[in-house]
Write a structure and sequence with these properties.
This protein is an alpha+beta fold and about 300 residues long. It is about 35% helix and about 20% strand. The strands form 3 sheets. Strands 1, 4, 7, 8, 9, 10 and 11 form a 7-stranded mixed β-sheet that branches. Helix 1 packs parallel to helix 2, helix 5 crosses helix 6 and helix 5 crosses helix 7.
Length: about 300
């Protein structure tokens, strides 16, 4: 395969692999060469997708100074395609809120003392809370089929967790998150995040998500506007918690406040629904023991008391 690539002038590092973990095959090299020849025959800008505007040609940046070109890796190329599709397809709206995570941090400290090896992160709590929220608000666990003019309600809850790696953004999926305990979720999230950063994950662990969580709190920031992971309809972003004055009883108290940013597809989700969903999530993050008392749903579990699918 590499011999053929050298003979026909193809850089294997820029070829999109169709095998497991992006492995490049002989057919991938041939297909890449065919696409390159087609581009040479058609120099005009090509559309980025069905019904989308063509991408304008870039100027010659070397006119103004030295430049360096590097080929996009497979992961970065896949991220670029998915983000472009999501941004051009979904009418995004982002709702912001904050959660007082003082009680959550107290629970984490207590569990750390009793179970020091348990990787109990804020992300794990967020996955547990959002898994329960998706049962209460099934329109956030759906997809929009515009061709058939139908809403696809999923009876399973698979939550993607964005992981920052050296190769780019990877989103492993935690299947049946609503049926797993907080302990099980914490362990599984830590395992798939470590695998995403080192050995890689099989394609099936990156597919089938119904909702995504991205946590930038370890890096900083006060809020952001995450892009919906199409064909999902919502994504929750977490920023860094910080002390803030909160009115408690008859005085202000410094409380650790966690910024929450919910982006959603406005074609399916109205602003009022987004506010209710995000406030529900914030309330459970503020009182994590209520979530533990609720526990995971049984296999035959159905959507809860919120808006239900038809």
């Amino acid at each position: 395969m590499r011999k053929l690539a050298r003979e026909i002038g193809v850089d294997v590092d820029v070829v999109q692999g169709s095998g497991a973990n992006g492995r490049v095959s002989l057919d991938d090299v041939k297909a890449h060469a065919r696409r390159a020849m087609e581009q040479l025959r058609s120099p005009a800008p090509r559309p980025t997708g069905p019904g989308q505007a063509p991408v304008p040609a870039l100027p010659d940046f070397s006119r103004w100074g030295a430049v360096e070109r590097r080929p996009m890796r497979n992961v970065r190329r896949a991220v670029a395609r998915r983000m472009s599709t999501a941004w051009q397809t979904v009418p995004h709206v982002t709702q912001h809120d904050r959660a007082d995570v003082g009680e959550l941090e107290a629970v984490r400290r207590t569990l750390k003392r009793t179970s020091p090896d348990l990787p109990l992160t804020v992300t794990a709590f967020a996955v547990a809370v959002c898994a329960a929220a998706l049962r209460e608000f099934p329109q956030f666990n759906a997809s929009l089929d515009t061709e058939r003019e139908e809403i696809v309600y999923k009876r399973y809850v698979n939550i993607g967790v964005a992981v920052d790696t050296e190769r780019g953004l990877i989103v492993p999926v935690i299947p049946d998150a609503d049926r797993k305990s907080l302990t099980a979720l914490s362990t599984e999230i830590a395992e798939v995040a470590a695998a995403a950063r080192t050995t890689g994950l099989p394609r099936e662990r990156l597919e089938g998500g119904t909702f995504t969580i991205t946590n930038l709190g370890g890096l900083g920031g006060t809020a952001f506007t995450p892009i919906v992971n199409y064909p999902e309809v919502a994504i929750l972003g977490l920023s860094r918690s910080a002390p803030a004055p909160v009115w408690v009883g008859d005085r202000f108290e410094p409380r650790p406040m966690l910024p929450l940013s919910l982006s959603y597809d406005h074609r399916l989700i109205d602003g009022a629904d987004a506010v209710r969903f995000l406030r529900w999530v914030a309330d459970r993050l503020e009182h994590p023991l209520l979530l533990e008392l609720r526990g995971p749903v049984a296999p035959e579990g159905k959507p809860g008391s919120g808006e239900s699918a038809p």
